[in-house]
Amino acid sequence: MAEVKHGRPETLAAQALGVVDAATGALIPPLHPSTTYEREADGGYPRGRVYARADNPTYDSAAHTLNALEGGAATLLFASGMAAATAAFLALQPGDHVLAPKVMYWALRSWLLGFASDWGLVVELVDTTDLGAVATALRPGKTKLVWVESPANPLWSVTDIAAMAELAHAAGARLAVDSTIATPVLTRPLELGADLVMHSATKYLNGHSDVVAGTLTTAQVDEYWTRVKTVLGQNGGILGTFEAWLLQRGLRTLFPRVRWQCASAQSLAERLQALPQITDVLYPGLPTFPGHDLARRQMRGGFGGMLSIRIAGGRDAALAVTGRLKVWKRATSLGGVESLVEHRASIEGPSSPVPDDLLRLSVGVEAVDDLFDDLTQAVDGE
Ligand SMILES: *Cc1c(COP(=O)(O)O)cnc(C)c1O
C-alpha cells in the first residue's frame, strides 16, 4: 500500500491520498495500459510487477484510496461487483455452509442458489434483520461466511453489522458486508467488526454510470485473503486499465455526491409520504421505518440515496407512473448522478420477494424540487 497521507476522509478522497506522480509531478495519476513489465538482466523483477493479470499500477490510486476510506488492510479491484462478491465465496471450499439474506441484491442471490450451490456450497437464506433467526441458522464450525447487505435492495432493510459480527465470530465464521448502498461515507463495516467489505463500484464509488467495477476490502491479510487474490488472478476477472483510472476520478467526489443524494432522498421520502397515491415510502431515514433506530446508530451523516415507493392500484398503476416520468430516467442500476426509477418485480421475475406495486428510486444530484414535481405529476396521472 502507498503511504497514506494525513487528513479526514473527505480530504483523503478529494486528493486520492495526496499522491503526486514521482516521475512527472502530475497530481492526477497516469494510465498504464502495459500488459507486461521488464525483467532485469539477472532475470529478477526488482520493481515487483510481472504481468498485468496479476497487477497494474493504474489500480493503486483507487484501491489505496478506498482502502483508507474503509480502514482496511488491503483492497482488490475486480471487473464487476459480481466478480468481487463471487470471489469471496469461491475462496471457500465446497461443502462449506454460508448464510445470506433472504432479501438481497438479486443477481447474487440467483448465483448463490444456482452456481454456488451446484459447486458445493451449502447456501442458506435467512432474515439477517432477525438476530435470533441468524443465531439459529449458524452452524458452529461449519458456517464459514455470513453475507449481509445493509441497507438491502430494494426494501432498504437495515442489518445490525456489529451484532452480526459477534454472532458470526462466535460460530467461527467470517462476516462479509455488501456496503454498496451505504458507501464508506455513511458506514465503515470493518470498524463494526466485519471481516470483509464488498462494493459494486459501478454504483456510488464511481458514481457516473460509466464504469462496471467491484471491490473487496479485508480487515486482515491472511490465508483466506490470499485465496481471494488467487481467485481474482486465476479466474481472471480483472478490472480494465481505463475503468480503474475512471474509478479513481469518481472516488474524488464521493463525499459531496453521497451527501447531496442523502439530503435529497430524505427530503423526497418525507414529502412523498403525504401523497395519497403512494401507499408506503421505504427509506431508513423515516422515523416510521422499522430499522430507523438501528440506521441512526449505524449510518453517519445520512441514510443513503435509495428509496422505494409503493403505488396505490398495484402493478399496472406503478408501471403507468414510470411511463409518465420526464426527469427520472427509466433504467436499472443506481448510485449515479442522474436519478433512476425501476419496477423491480418485473426485472426479478415470479420468484422475487419484491411487491409488484413497488418502484425503486435512485436519487441523483439534480434539483430536488424537479425530482419531486416530476413524481407528483406522474402519480397524479392524466
Ligand atoms: C449492482 C450491485 C451488485 C452487483 O454489482 P455489478 O457491478 O453490477 O456486478 C451487488 N450488490 C449491490 C447492492 C448492487 O447494487
Automatic annotation (TrEMBL):
Family note: Belongs to the trans-sulfuration enzymes family.
Query: Which species expresses this protein natively?
Result: Magnetospirillum gryphiswaldense (strain DSM 6361 / JCM 21280 / NBRC 15271 / MSR-1)
User: Does the record's keyword annotation contain Signal?
Assistant: no
Residue(s) carrying N6-(pyridoxal phosphate)lysine: 203
Q: Could you tell me the keywords of this UniProt record? A: Pyridoxal phosphate, Transferase
Protein known as: Cystathionine gamma-synthase, PLP-dependent
Entry GO CC:
cytoplasm
Write out the GO biological process terms.
cysteine biosynthetic process via cystathionine; transsulfuration
The protein's required cofactors? pyridoxal 5'-phosphate
Q: Which class of enzymes does this protein belong to?
A: transferase
Q: Show the SUPFAM superfamilies listed in the entry.
A: PLP-dependent transferases
- Write down the EC number: 2.5.1.48
State the source organism's domain of life. Answer: Bacteria
Gene name in the database record: metB
An example of a GO molecular function for this protein is: cystathionine gamma-synthase activity
